[in-house]
Hints:
Blueprint (H helix, E strand, L loop, with lengths): L13 H12 L4 H8 L3 H20 L1
Helix pairs in contact: 1-3, 2-3
Amino acid sequence: KINVSKFSNRQLSTLEVLVSCLKFDFKLKNIEISRLLSRDSRTIWTVVNNIERKKIGNKKE
Length: 61
């Protein structure tokens, strides 16, 4: 189950929150996430990089 309260984070898009949960909470690989969401694996890779960049940016503040 995915905790719905995670979607209240306005710093991440809906897709970023969903991918973040699948990647970091459920430990799925990018290819598995792309199949689940019917997205290209390169799109998932980009989303994961955006998530990591946003998290690093938040730590600097």
